């Protein structure tokens, strides 16, 4: 679940500020599976960036869009998912597990070395058996080297420097941040981002900059508190050049 804050100390009314109606709707989840082999796991930042891009690829895919006669095969599931809590769950797979998961309808997105497969939303209690048996734990990844400064011309998903999250949790939160940014963009900005391969960076914010980011008016993910961290915690601030320009930054 993610919510959007504005530049006030308290949350404003945003698309998910009133949680009650969404709690009453049928609940769906967006499954993401990260390929982690014991011998060669991906770097943490690479996995986070690839997961965020996978969410954007799913949202922009023709199969996820349209209504009526022009409705894509995944469009209704995506709408039902977005009408409820915006849940994402990251599981890991290796070897035969990965091959079985890759045979299901979905999209595999690759990073520098990371591979993440995103699947159309499924009911919270209706996971395909090939995915349901995959483990959520075991996604603790590290960066063997400093990822360096982000591209100043590309979107950046800034992580809260005061929260410790597993890689799997952080991947889901990065996906939330990318989705909130996507919703705020114009059609032209979305198309430009898509045509550029959804270039983005995920970085941990400097402590001194984090408060400014959360109060800037940029989309901010506020966690529902289901796993790992307290409900209401701000986890990601999504900084897209188009959004920053509209804020005068």
Structure description:
With 249 residues, the protein is α+β, with helices and mostly antiparallel strands. Helices cover 34% and strands 17% of the residues. It contains nine helices and nine strands. It has helices at residues 20-24, 44-60, 75-83, 95-102, 129-132, 167-184, 187-195, 207-214, 241-246; strands at 28-35, 87-93, 107-110, 115-118, 122-123, 156-159, 201-204, 220-222, 234-239. Strands 1, 2, 3, 4 and 5 form a five-stranded mixed beta sheet that branches. The longest helix has 18 residues, at 167-184. The chain is globular.
Overall pLDDT? 87
Helix- and strand-based class?
alpha+beta
Major sheet summary line: 5 strands, mixed
Q: What is the gyration radius calculated from CA atoms?
A: 17 Å
The total strand number stands at 9
Helix/strand order, N-terminal first: HEHHEHEEEHEHHEHEEH
The best one-word shape is globular
Which runs of at least 5 residues are low in confidence (pLDDT < 50)?
Answer: 1-20
Strand content: 15-25%
Helix content: 25-40%
**N-to-C span:** 28 Å
How many helical stretches?
A: 9
Annotation keywords:
249 residues, alpha+beta, five-stranded mixed beta sheet, 9 strands, globular, disordered N terminus
